[in-house]
Design a protein that fits this description.
By secondary structure, this protein is an alpha/beta fold. The chain contains 14 helices and eight strands. Helix content is 45%, strand content 14%.
């Protein structure tokens, strides 16, 4: 079916700059009552828009962000910049920003006697596992791929979740985590857990800021007793322990940022962490609208790309149906029939239960002069969903051949 979505919205190189008519939307509010925490928890949600009138319901990976009210706005902007308009640096994703009620309680895995009301991290993790994750999966179009991200105490909780509950998320981003919490207690159990846990198909990105005295390096900091040095030294000790256990299959990396301190790191760490997590996602989409007739090599490249992604992410990753649909009609309009047919055929292969894919294939054959095949595809479309306009096309062909 020919949709009123301009290809220029997909690829900036084909578009003319336009003045936006509305302000940028930073997602939507949501909330749920937690029986575990005995309080209402507020959420900040970004979910990519999708037209399910014509296309199959999509499925998106989910990014869960601690201190969500602090980090949500720039993450949504980053997501839109890096996953739309032909940019595939990141996949389109759902963002779940978890707003705080009692930050010290929720984001500390152990109780420090000097800090009242601390040490509720395990209870908070139970809330995630038993209430929040099922709630998001039931309400939003989620794919079975979750990323967990946090900064400072949030980074501490990300690390605690990885080593104690690795099955909850697929990828973990810890930005300058407060490993020093409670005399660096988390480090006491890390070696044993890293040695005996199997972290197959799990990813970790660890970002380290230059929080200590600017004149110290990462060797000198271990002997300095200032708070910033204690903070950084604990993270470096964690990195050393991670290096000691290469046999646990954890896919991890870390980066030290000598020009950033604790509070300037979050945005940079989120960007680097997400790029690291989705390193395989990039695809040369500039080949999509190219008007060269050779479609076979592009088809091979597309199929190989999504096979690699599916293996990497552990579930069948597909292109966006609406995107390939628009590309099929774009090439049809400029009579580049080889690429038009390729995009329509791939849509049928990736979305065999979508009535729209067969309808569009029928339009292709009608445009190229094969009315019999056009009717055949339109009938397959009607077998999935009856749409009066498609039946009218079949009736029109029947009348014209009498």
């Amino acid at each position: 079916m020919r949709k009123l979505i301009l290809l220029s919205l997909l690829f900036p190189l084909l578009s003319i700059a336009q003045t936006p008519t509305t302000l940028v939307s930073f997602g939507q509010p949501d909330s749920l009552y937690s029986a575990i925490l005995k309080e209402k928890r507020h959420l900040w949600i970004y979910s990519p828009s999708g037209d399910t009138t014509y296309f199959e319901k999509p499925a998106y990976p989910v990014l869960y962000v601690l201190d969500g009210d602090a980090h949500f706005a720039y993450l949504q902007t980053m997501m839109q910049q890096l996953s739309l308009n032909g940019n595939t640096a990141l996949p389109q994703m759902i963002i779940v920003g978890i707003a705080n009620t009692n930050r010290t309680r929720d984001l500390t895995p152990t109780s420090d006697p000097k800090i009242p009301d601390s040490g509720g991290g395990e209870q908070f993790t139970s809330f995630l596992e038993k209430e929040l994750l099922p709630y998001i999966d039931s309400k939003y179009p989620t794919a079975p791929y979750r990323v967990y991200s946090g900064h400072s105490l949030g980074g501490l909780m990300v690390m605690n979740t990885l080593i104690h509950h690795p099955g909850l998320f697929n990828a973990y981003i810890a930005s300058d985590p407060s490993i020093f919490w409670n005399n660096s207690m988390i480090l006491s159990s890390v070696d044993s857990l890293l040695e005996h846990q199997d972290f197959k198909n799990k990813k970790l990105y660890l970002a380290v800021a230059h929080t200590m005295n600017q004149y110290l390096d990462t060797v000198q900091v271990k002997n300095d007793k200032a708070m910033g040095s204690i903070h950084t030294s604990a993270i470096l000790q964690l990195a050393d322990k991670l290096k000691k256990h290469p046999g646990n299959h954890l896919n991890w990396s870390y980066k030290y940022f000598p020009d950033d301190y604790h509070n300037s790191l979050p945005l940079i760490a989120q960007y680097e962490g997400l790029r690291s997590t989705f390193r395989q996602y990039w695809f040369p989409t500039y080949l999509y609208p190219d008007n060269s007739p050779n479609a076979d090599s592009l088809r091979t490249l597309i199929i190989s790309h999504y096979k690699t992604l599916s293996k990497e992410m552990g579930y069948p990753v597909r292109p966006y149906e609406w995107e390939f649909n628009n590309l099929g009609y774009h090439h049809l309009s400029i009579k580049n029939y080889a690429k038009s047919r390729m995009f329509f055929e791939l849509n049928i292969e990736y979305f065999p239960k979508s009535y729209n894919t067969y309808d569009s294939m029928g339009d292709y054959y009608k445009e190229t002069g094969d009315s019999a095949k056009a009717v055949s595809y339109w009938k397959q479309s009607l077998a999935i969903r009856f749409v009066a306009g498609i039946q009218e096309k079949i009736d029109h062909v029947a009348l014209s051949t009498r």
